[in-house]
Amino acid sequence: MPLENSISAFIGCEAGYDESKIVIFGAPYDCTTSYRPGTRFGPRDIRAESFGIETYSPYQDKDLTDCKIFDSGDLELRFGSPESALDDIKARTAEILSDGKLPLMLGGEHLVTLGQFRAIAEKYNNDVYILHFDAHADLRDEYLGQHLSHACVLRRCHDIVGDGRIFQFGIRSGDREEFRFAEKHTVMFKTGIDGVSFDALPGVIEKLKGKNVYLTIDLDVLDPAFFCGTGTPEAGGATFNQLLDAIIKIGNSLNIVGADLNELSPHYDQSGASTAIACKLLRETLLAVYR
């Protein structure tokens, strides 16, 4: 791992590696994307766009310049081999964990979560819970015959931690069997006709206090009316403020042991608004989970 920031580090994340408490890294991989590719460009564009926002959060009254955060840049992942890419992600995460730091990964497609979560689960002997924000259930056992796909990532995480440890918010898309599976094996808060609601989140937070929690945010949980820069947009999603409020509540209340933001495909939003939203949510996530 490089021990010094690159010139393209996310704004305000210029601490040295040794002194840092959080380490950012990018996983620019989208080889199993089922619809529109392009998430491999997400980490790069988030960093570039970050210089259009401030380091200070008026929502939390915190500033990235007061935090020790290191941006280690993007991994060079082996396209064409999902398992090899996941191995590389797992190795980087394990290195960060072994040095007593919190890993925060930028995708890339959602499959990259599995690589990081494998390392987290090993670190904590599978005693980890997952908070999952997404438009899609991601609980297929296979997609077009492949068990490693961004459509299967939470199913593969369930293979590791088992029943009752995955809490899913914002879900409004999936095949029938995914929803049947969720009824028995995960805790899913589906989106109804009235739209996305995170009303159940305070109760989940209370349940998970004192436990090891992994936070994974697929940005397509947001409504494509204002976040269209994603590969599989789904109407009826959350607002920016809903997701922001959820992130702050989670970060302030729970023991987050790892996190990721994924599924920004920047070139589908020529206005740049989706990338700007991703930047702001990354800033707020960093500040919320920083200890």
Strand and helix map with partners:
Blueprint: E1 22-27, H1 42-49, E2 56-57, E3 62-63, E4 69-74, H2 82-98, E5 102-107, H3 112-123, E6 129-133, H4 153-161, E7 166-171, H5 176-185, E8 187-190, H6 201-208, E9 212-218, H7 240-253, E10 255-262, H8 273-289
Parallel strand pairs: 1-4, 1-5, 5-10, 6-7, 6-9, 7-8, 9-10
Antiparallel strand pairs: 2-3
Helix pairs in contact: 1-8, 2-3, 3-4, 6-7, 7-8
Poorly predicted ranges: none
Q: Which H/E pattern describes the elements?
A: EHEEEHEHEHEHEHEHEH
Q: Strand count, sense and closure of the main sheet?
A: 8 strands, parallel
| Overall average pLDDT | 95
Strand order of the largest sheet: 4-1-5-10-9-6-7-8
Per CATH, the superfamily is: Ureohydrolase domain
CATH class: Alpha Beta
What helical percentage do the residues reach? 25-40%
Determine the CATH topology. Arginase, Chain A
Strand proportion: 15-25%
Shape field: globular
Kindly name the structural category.
alpha/beta
Q: What's the gyration radius in Å?
A: 17 Å
> How many alpha or pi helices?
8
How many angstroms does the end-to-end distance come to? 23 Å
Name given to the CATH architecture = 3-Layer(aba) Sandwich
Number of domains: 1
What can you see in these coordinates?
By secondary structure, the protein is α/β, with parallel strands linked by helices. The chain has one domain: Arginase, Chain A, CATH 3.40.800.10. It is about 35% helix and about 20% strand. The chain is built from eight helices and ten strands. The strands form two sheets. The chain has an eight-stranded parallel β-sheet, sandwiched between helices. The protein has a two-stranded antiparallel ribbon with strand order 2-3. Strand 2 (about 55) and strand 3 (about 60-65) form a beta hairpin. Helix 1 (about 40-50) packs across helix 8, helix 2 crosses helix 3 (about 110-125) and helix 7 (about 240-255) runs parallel beside helix 8. It starts with about 20 loop residues before the first strand and ends with a helix. About 50% of the residues are buried.
